[in-house]
Amino acid sequence: MADEAIPFDPFARFRLATRARIGLGRSGDALPSRHLLSFQLAHALARDAVNGSVDWDGLTAGLPDGVETVAVHSAAPDRQTYLRRPDLGRRLEAESLGRLSHAGWDLALVVADGLSAAAVQAWAPATAIEILTRLKDWKVAPIVLARQARVALGDHVGERLGARMVAVLIGERPGLSVADSLGIYLTYAPRPGCRDAERNCISNIHADGLSPAQAAEKLVWLAREGMRRKLTGVGLKEETPSTSIAGKEVPAIPNDA
Amino acid sequence: MSQFATTAGGERHVFPDLKTVLACASPRRSGDELAGIAAASDVRRVAARMVLADLPLTVFLDHPLVPYEEDEVTRLIVDGHDARAFAPVAHMTVGQFRDWLLSYAATPDVLTALAPGLTPEMAAAVSKLMRNIDLVTVASKCRVVTAFRTTIGLPGCLSSRLQPNHPTDDPLGIAASTLDGLLFGIGDAVIGINPASDNLDACMTLIRMQDEVRRRFDIPTQSCVLTHVTNTIAAIERGAPVDLVFQSIAGTEAANRGFGIDLAILAEARQAALELRRGTVGDNVMYFETGQGSALSADAHHGVDQQTIEARAYGVARAFAPLLVNTVVGFIGPEYLYDAKQITRAGLEDHFCGKLLGVPMGVDVCYTNHAEADQDDMDVLMTLLGTAGVNFLIAVPGADDVMLNYQSLGYHDVLTLRHLLGRRPAPEFEAWLSRMGMLDETGRLPPQGPHAGSVTRLLGNGA
Questions:
Q1: Domain A51-237 coded CATH 3.30.530.20
Q2: Domain ranges of chain A
């Protein structure tokens, strides 16, 4: 209304309860320009996260001295192939196989680009460090940095290394509200052909979700318990005290974000 | 059955069986390539269509693509085939059938009478010979009308599902998205929540909350919590006010098993919902979602192309007299439908096949952030579907589903399309919008100012 200095917002009391794009107003029947552009910016961030590549050198530089890494590539040569052929993203290319040598590791850590380079860049180093700090009594393999990789690539890596468990830190599919969310998949006795039901997942590691330390805490609980009981997946998850972020306050997107 | 062959482009093309003909005749899509069944070249694709065009429609009755003995969906299709309804087209080839569907002889009444005589495989086959505009033209002649508290699919109407999802099922957050949608005239097909939790108590809380909102504002529509069918049966047993039973379905017995269902459990759920007698203007109580690629992703496609398997899901749906069926066309991701061209084509095929088979077809016009698509592409598909007479479209606030992390249409989009094409909401719901003072003298729904009566009634005073 023209006579109101601050426009009255009938949705005011709802905005803290949801980050859904409610009460946007109308230009005729369409979106007002600023909301149109806000949507396009969010989509652009998500698209860039999917199509971007991880700065692996920068990521490695962010790890403490003494933490070894080994770079591998999936059988998907590029992003376009990766998106069309999930089967190739789950396998190692021939040359990479030679870089992984069999030894009696307790845990293999794989950092995989997945569907969000931004997530890996932002959260993978800190999360890996938090995990290593909590597992000093375990024999952990050099961190495997995997390009064009999906979760199940970890099965091949774990088997090749002879690791009893593999944890894959991977960029999750970006949404409009969060483009840089990291997930972790933990698998006991990794070998090609593992089913998803044999894995435990910790999702939503990002600025408004789990912190790297919180995620590492959950992962290490699952890893120690899984190692003791010689399994991961559905059988383990049911007894985990709290692996979801349900109940966490969900921040609202500012009206003009 | 013996192999099929033709000469095209100076080359002999041989196809070992019927399902290879269909797979090769399909427009190019990443899911069929992933399955290793797509045509290896464009010429081979056209050669397969030439073979297909000359096959009699009866070939699909005589040679099931998925074995009758192994698959209850095949048995449902074959045993339920209505030979009398089929008789008018029984002598046709697939190519002749396309010509006839486009002819003036194929009127809405004729097509309605024909539907029980068609099998999903026939619908899929003829769709592969059609251009996009053919799919739009023929679908626009098909009428499938269903009802519960609103009547959906009437000529000149475009209904919508209001989808107020929330990542933690927060009641206030869901209410906010619901009320926002109502102020755009959305929700006459259903107000349907995808719950974040499949926990039965949590689902029952949502079912009761939705019923309370509907009764408080006396809204003539139906609500649904899209949880597993076994959950909904349990909720009904425990006295929850269930309007519609939801379930995701697919086109083979094995893929349905992957969803944890079979035909018997769908029948049981329908019976339980019917006994509640909650519909006022009709008793269509089922709501199904489908989507190309689901059978392949469950490794349950039997070497059949994803579009034909999708049409078989409509064969499942129509056996349960649903109120609503929609394909969630772009949700599955780029390994099945790579880009906007493939999503658009699939959306039109799904709508066409569903309508031709007599299914009350809607579409979730949507995409994920790893597909080569954006909101401009959704504008194109929704406009095509609007002209094709789609029964309903799904809409979320600002096109952004904050729970499922994908983009659908926004409330604005459905309203735009209604006004652009002169389509109206379901009549019972339109009367409610009118009682709420939300429509102007021409029947349009103009912007509701912050102090409008409708806003104050639905949202309170903002305190």
A1: no
A2: 51-237
Instruction: Please tell me the distance in Å from B113's CA to the nearest CA on chain A.
Output: 38
What are A199-213's pLDDT values in tens digits?
999 988 999 889 999
CB-CB: which of A49, A84, A174 is closest to B334?
Answer: A84
For domain B146-435, give the fold.
Answer: TIM Barrel (3.20.20)
Mean pLDDT to the nearest integer, B52-71: 97
CA atoms within 13 A on the CB side of B227: 24
Q: Domain spans of chain B?
A: 1-55, 146-435
In this structure, how many other beta carbons lie within 10 angstroms of the beta carbon of residue B299? 11
Put the strands of the sheet holding A69-73 in their side by side order.
Answer: A69-73, A143-147, A107-112, A165-171, A182-188, A199-205
> How far apart are the C-alpha atoms of B379 and A9, rounded to whole Å?
29
Quick one: what percent of chain A has pLDDT higher than 70? 90
Tokens of B57: 């429609």
- Cα–Cα dist A156/A158, whole Å: 5
Query: Distance between CA B132 and CA B271 in Å, rounded?
Result: 38
Partner residue opposite B374 with nearest CB, options A43, A84, A85: A43
For tokens 């021409």, name the residue: B442
pLDDT at B67 over 60: yes
Q: How far apart are the first and last CA of chain B?
A: 72
Flag whether pLDDT at A254 surpasses 90.
no
Q: Considering the domain B1-55 in this protein, what is its CATH number?
A: 2.30.170.30
Question: B161 a known binding residue?
Answer: yes
Per-residue pLDDT reduced to its tens digit, B391-408:
999 999 999 999 899 999
**Angle at CA of residue B212, ends B210 and B218, nearest 5°:** 105
pLDDT exceeds cutoff 50 at B13: yes
- What pLDDT score does A196 carry? 82
pLDDT band at A7 (very low <50, low <70, confident <90, very high): confident
Compute the C-alpha angle B189/B194/B200, nearest 5°.
Answer: 115
Instruction: Report CA B136 to chain centroid distance, whole Å.
Output: 15
A54 is in an annotated binding site: no
Query: Is B370 in contact with A173 (Cβ distance < 8 A)?
Result: yes
Residues A17-70: tens digit of each pLDDT: 999 999 999 999 999 999 999 999 999 999 999 999 999 999 999 899 999 999
CA A56 – CA A71 distance, rounded (Å) = 9
Q: A153-171: buried (b, 16+ CB within 10 Å) or exposed (e) per residue?
A: bbbbbbbbbebbbbbbbbb
Q: Which residues of A touch B416 (CB under 8 A)?
A: 29-30
| Distance separating alpha carbons of residues B27 and B342, to the nearest angstrom | 8
Q: Which chain B residues in 419-438 lie under 8 Å from chain A, judged by CB atoms?
A: 419
Spatial distance between the Cα atoms of B418 and B156, rounded to a whole number of angstroms? 10
pLDDT in the model for residue B254: 95
